[in-house]
Amino acid sequence: MTTITIPEGMPQYGDVPRFDVEKVRADFPILGREVNGHPMVYLDSGNTSQKPRQVIDAMREHFEHHNANVARSVHQVGTEATEAYEGARAKVARFVNAASPEEIVFVKNATEAINLVAYAISNSPAASRLALGPGDEIVISEMEHHSNIVPWQLLCERTGATLRWFKVTDAGRLDLEDLDELVNERTKLVSYALVSNVLGTVNPTSAITARAHEVGALVLLDASQGVPHIPVDVADLGADFLAFTGHKMCGPTGIGVLWGRYELLEQMPPVLGGGSMIETVTMERSTFAAPPARFEAGTPPIAEAVGLGAAVDYLTGIGMEAIRWHEKELAAYALDALGTVPGLRIFGPTTPVGRGGTISFGLDGVHPHDVGQILDSVGVEVRVGHHCARPLCVRYGVPAMTRASFYLYTTTDEVDALVRGLEQVRKVFG
Amino acid sequence: MTTITIPEGMPQYGDVPRFDVEKVRADFPILGREVNGHPMVYLDSGNTSQKPRQVIDAMREHFEHHNANVARSVHQVGTEATEAYEGARAKVARFVNAASPEEIVFVKNATEAINLVAYAISNSPAASRLALGPGDEIVISEMEHHSNIVPWQLLCERTGATLRWFKVTDAGRLDLEDLDELVNERTKLVSYALVSNVLGTVNPTSAITARAHEVGALVLLDASQGVPHIPVDVADLGADFLAFTGHKMCGPTGIGVLWGRYELLEQMPPVLGGGSMIETVTMERSTFAAPPARFEAGTPPIAEAVGLGAAVDYLTGIGMEAIRWHEKELAAYALDALGTVPGLRIFGPTTPVGRGGTISFGLDGVHPHDVGQILDSVGVEVRVGHHCARPLCVRYGVPAMTRASFYLYTTTDEVDALVRGLEQVRKVFG
Amino acid sequence: MEFEQLYQEIILDHYKHPHGRGLREPVTGSSVGEAHHVNPTCGDEVTIRVAADGDVLADVSYDGMGCSISQASASVLHELLRGQHAGQAFKIMDGFVELMGGRGQVTPDEELLGDGIAFAGVARYPARVKCALLPWMAFKDAAVRAGVAGSSPSAAASEVQGS
Amino acid sequence: MEFEQLYQEIILDHYKHPHGRGLREPVTGSSVGEAHHVNPTCGDEVTIRVAADGDVLADVSYDGMGCSISQASASVLHELLRGQHAGQAFKIMDGFVELMGGRGQVTPDEELLGDGIAFAGVARYPARVKCALLPWMAFKDAAVRAGVAGSSPSAAASEVQGS
Ligand SMILES: Cc1ncc(COP(=O)(O)O)c(C=O)c1O
Ligand SMILES: Cc1ncc(COP(=O)(O)O)c(C=O)c1O
């Protein structure tokens, strides 16, 4: 009998997480459906993820047994709803390793989370450390989702500050060459994607946060494509704010999350005014509750928080390390497989290093709309267009791209179906 | 044989809508539950309503079969989700008789709807008809929910405008005596509740909208307690904006509605920036989509819209006239029954005229918290506190009130249970 | 296969071998109007140039880039409208717009729409209807700019945004 | 009946017949601190006045309005803390705070808490815990203002907002 010894430094067997994709798929009712007479191959998880039975059931259970408004009732059902809602906050806090549940603000989506910070800044009095004015700068990047571009453009319009941005290299990485010039004494905030929704790139954080903090700027990470796919630990990341969204991480629509360091949240003035965010109200003036309540005006997404809590439990049960590993395997497989398709060009990193399971590409001479349509006709669901990242398309000189994005329930068979579908596309448009 | 002729002017038999409350109750799974060993008597619908099976099922069905992101996909599942979402918009538009679905903006709750208008105003350039500045006035009332007070206080802070308000009479009606002075040439917006969440008062509209429009002011109706309970027709009301919220009208949490006259929505600048609300984006600047998309940044509450659409179908199936009638009957019954409780004082209209099925009261010598707690111990779920309307409590000289609020599934037996519960309260604290 | 409904031979043919593509200089004396339309969600672009000789559309030339549906639609438009009287051209346009708005329920009039009937399948794909309509909406604007009357109000007119 | 868990005879008794209610003028020479706390969600109010004679809480007087739980809690607080050494007073406070934070899982120490053990049932009602703690948080502030040392950090301290 021979024993194979794996050299040190190579991944050991023990490093490969247990992951049974078929078992995972059985949790997602929609994966059994057909599209145009073919089994659905859902490769659009970057757009929104599918929901496991556990999440759907948690929401139904809530509506059927514990539905009431929160934080306002002394009655039993209201207490149950409040505990469910606050329990979800605690789960989300643990999931990203926040210092306390009070650092988690529930909003409607990642877009609102980012806008919340932008409006808190423009609502800040001039004396505040958050205040912004002419001469001040905000830095974003060329690979941002519109939701991390437009709020800052509007903020600059409101305050007279200047918007600047990191460029993107041909290989699909943030160009950090000018870091020290771009992030300088005038910079008040740096906001960029932890993971690109188009290129799949996982962006570096320590060099940028270090430079930002050196010059006294705050850092917001748009982790909409990060938290669902890789382990995220806010204590490790060293950022000041993190935005993400429920529907991309097996949770329902209608809920997003802003995490912020508590001492910053405390300094932020309210943005939306209304019920539940107040301390006391007179007709003349009001005082406001401490965070997170200060930023949760009106009835919050209660059932959605319950759903998101269930999603977090589900992802934790499977293990974020295992999910990352599974998607890395898929990305490697897909990059290889797509490499065999003639005339296919990948935008972004072409090796499975520093990237997640989202791959955008072009097919010579065929418009992405046509690619998407033919793929749909054989049941393969991909996204086509500018992916809410038009400046990035402009950067690569194309009006649109085709994107396949994977998640924990994606299989190599589905990647094969994509490749077969692309053959079909080439036949029709050849 | 004698024929009874009902005198003209009295309600005729034909005027009494068909309404079978037991049949309605069978649609609401939660109504079968117990609280503290007693059948639950849910009298807190003003806080949030319960959900019928039809709504819960529609959401589950969506997640299990049609879940995808909207407005961004050419694929089949995305098309189904988009049609479901836009279909819900059309249903809501018909429900309040909007001129077109494009007048319906989906937001996260009524609070966001009101804040959206407030921020669109402060984001408007000085030349705009919506612009606001020092010397301009906004008029609200003393019976508003905090969600219709605080956004205007914050807006006045941002713009230097002045906040004024209608007083409330002892009988719980808006005091319109000073209407012509209060709403004057300086007034830019009048915003008040169509139905009070505390007193149950249904407020008049024609005199106020007429005066407002005479002086060139806009009118926003906070219909959060109106749309769920009485037929609402925006063409009839003559207002400019209407805000309401899904969770109080048998729909899910996480969704609210702003209706606005299209020509006004068109003049409003964006508030939240991000995906889906743009026309085109460059790093330097962006242009924006037409309403309603302009005001729906990011992934909208898709499953929630599906749920709200199902709620609207459900309410329409039963008939809003029938629901109004049922609640009026209940209010009459409850006002009589509560009148028999010694030491009980009703805040607001004491006759079932110009009021809905929401009744707030005080019990001599017993704090509302204690009232609520004893009632809860016998399964009766009421709300106690300031009901997010602290200035109204101050107006009546009390720190808090107890509120029973009815809906289509409430029965006279439940009113009896409330009255029996109050006897218990008096025994414990007598 | 499903996609054959959408990608009729005719459409692919017009896409791969567009008829009369390219913006042409009008003969002197004719009244000229041009419009450039973009579909902001996918970046498809079409420019239509109308050269009118009194009531007759002496030339309808075009250029553009984008998906097969939008580009084939421009080619078909050129075929159908060039040389028509304005009244007939707008009748054809209305027929095409109606077909596109019909969600696959409208039976196309082959006499009127010629190769345009190949787009009947597109009407079943809401996301693609805008692609098919793009050149037609540009034509409408161009015709107005060329001073050609007879444009009837059309429900879909505001669907696609010009630039 | 469930509510009996919450509304122990003892609590109702203290509510209906509060012990030593009313703010008293301190004897001259003692060091005085006062704090007024409000529960913003229900409007309950309590004022606590601590008069310290060196290390001894010579008097702990109070006034307030609100629900039975908050007012009975003030009465019990007065009973338990008046005349105590500061160290013992804070030990009692910590015991009470721990009981309230225990969600009904903490067995109260009757020796330490006296009538305070009647509040054990309240801990099962999260919405009412704030009511029971209101006078204790006011006491904590008042003691600090009276210059009484020995306050230990308490988890619930930030739960109720002062004014
Ligand atoms: C009259 C009134 N306005 C506004 C609101 C706020 O609604 P939401 O909490 O759903 O934003 C409510 C309900 O809480 C209400 O009763
Ligand atoms: C990187 C990134 N940021 C922000 C968003 C916006 O998320 P949401 O639409 O849920 O607000 C998305 C997804 O659309 C995204 O991929």
Summarize the structure.
The complex is a heterotetramer, with 2 copies of chain A (430 residues) and 2 copies of chain C (163 residues). With 430 residues, chain A is of the alpha/beta class. Chain A has helices spanning 21-25, 53-66, 76-95, 110-122, 150-159, 179-182, 206-214, 234-237, 262-267, 302-318, 320-339, 368-377, 390-395, 412-429; strands spanning 34-35, 38-39, 41-42, 104-107, 137-141, 162-166, 187-193, 218-222, 241-245, 256-260, 278-281, 286-288, 344-347, 358-363, 380-381, 383-385, 401-405.
Walk me through what this model shows.
Chains C, D: It comes from Phytohabitans maris. Chains C, D: It holds the Pfam family NifU_N. Chains C, D: InterPro entries: NIF_FeS_clus_asmbl_NifU_N. Chains C, D: Residues 7-131 form the NIF system FeS cluster assembly NifU N-terminal domain. Chains C, D: This is SUF system NifU family Fe-S cluster assembly protein. The complex is a heterotetramer, with 2 copies of chain A (430 residues) and 2 copies of chain C (163 residues). Chain A is α/β, with parallel strands linked by helices. Chain A contains 14 helices and 17 strands. In chain A, the strands form 5 sheets. In chain A, strands 4-10-9-8-7-5-6 form a 7-stranded mixed β-sheet, with helices on both faces. A 4-stranded antiparallel β-sheet of chain A has the order 13-14-17-16, covered by helices on one side. A two-stranded antiparallel sheet of chain A has the order 1-2. In chain A, helix 3 (76-95) crosses helix 10 (302-318). Chain A starts with 20 loop residues before the first helix and ends with a helix. The model of chain A has no long low-confidence stretch (mean pLDDT 95). Helices cover 40% and strands 17% of the residues of chain C. Chain C is α+β, with helices and mostly antiparallel strands. Chain C has helices spanning 3-6, 9-16, 68-81, 86-100, 110-113, 126-145; strands at 31-38, 45-53, 56-65. The chains are: A alpha/beta (430), C alpha+beta (163). The interface between A and B is large, with 99 and 99 residues. Bound molecules: pyridoxal-5'-phosphate (PLP) (2 copies). One pyridoxal-5'-phosphate sits between chains A (109-111, 145, 147-148, 193, 197, 222, 224-225, 245, 247, 256, 388) and B (275, 298-299).
